[in-house]
Amino acid sequence: MLACETGAAADRASATGLAVRAALRRAGERPDHWWAHGSGSPAADREECSAVLPQIGAVPVTSSKGTLGLALECSALIDTALAVESLRRGQLPPVGLLRRPDPRLGGPDTVTGQARPVPAAGIALITGIDHGRSSASAGALVLGGVTGGQGDHRARREEEL
């Protein structure tokens, strides 16, 4: 883990922007892909994209919600585990059940259809957003340094035995 920050504000976009800005500053690294919270709500997804895309530019983006759904407070933890495995395997999975990204999201490079390669020593940005009614909080994690390379970890473990 290179950095983990939270932000709180009156709205989701501001909270997300604060968390991402602080995490990127602390990490001192730019992500080469993004695990978006991606709740599937058109309004919430537009807010998230408007807060994150200007800070990271055109990097591939995925989200687990299309496949797994929203796990509320556990969503960011699940996305972190998936991002670690993605970095270890060198593959960024597509957003599940998504055929055509919403054109109103501001043009993220959404991974659809099939997985894409992740650079060796890749850096992931993971965002998580609370869905409070009167205020909002968000978290951002910059993750890197995951080793293990591609391949089946079970096969490597069997070789070790």
Structure, described:
With 161 residues, this protein is of the alpha/beta class. Helix content is 36%, strand content 20%. Strand 2 (33-35), helix 2 and strand 3 (60-62) form a beta-alpha-beta unit. The longest helix is centred in the first third of the chain and has 16 residues, at 12-27. The chain is globular and about 40 Å long. Residues 150-158 have low confidence and may be disordered.
The N- and C-terminal alpha carbons lie at a distance of: 29 Å
Q: Number of helix segments?
A: 5
Helix content: 25-40%
Q: Order of SSEs, N→C?
A: EHEHEHHEEEEEH
Task: Write a brief caption for the model.
The chain has 161 residues and is α/β, with parallel strands linked by helices. The chain has helices at 12-27, 42-56, 65-68, 75-89, 153-160; strands at residues 3-9, 33-35, 60-62, 91-92, 109-110, 116-117, 124-129, 136-143. Helix content is 36%, strand content 20%.
Question: In terms of topology, how is this protein built?
Answer:
Layout: E1 3-9, H1 12-27, E2 33-35, H2 42-56, E3 60-62, H3 65-68, H4 75-89, E4 91-92, E5 109-110, E6 116-117, E7 124-129, E8 136-143, H5 153-160
Parallel strand pairs: 2-3, 2-7, 3-5
Antiparallel strand pairs: 1-8, 4-6, 7-8
Key traits:
globular, six-stranded mixed β-sheet, single chain, 161 residues, alpha/beta
